[in-house]
Sequence to fold (126 residues):
Amino acid sequence: MSKKVLIITDGTDSIQSIAQLISAAISEYKGKICTAQDFTGTDILPADIFFIGCEEKSPPSFSYLEEMLSHINLASRKCGIFSVNEKSIEYLRAITEDSEACTNSLLLEKYKINKKDIEKWVKGLI
Fold:
């Protein structure tokens, strides 16, 4: 049985490019990248590990994700949160807190997205 990964993004260019690098770094997992706008709650249920990324804190498309994460227990799951903005990392940490997922964060510089840094972070998380 293959392991499954879900990557939820805000759809911005920088976050989408990071999501693609995360997906490439875990090629042994069956992955799905979706924007928060296209996310449904059932997407997260089969995921062994999930990632959430946004460029700016509290994007409007994250309202459903915020609500869902406040009412679901994901204590057995690992969650990677990522951004190019410190305030967004704080926001993502706050919205995942109630879910009790084991969270690890990665803050990257917007114009210095490094494939090796992402691979190292992902391997440390899984």
Summary: The first strand starts at residue 4 and ends at 9.
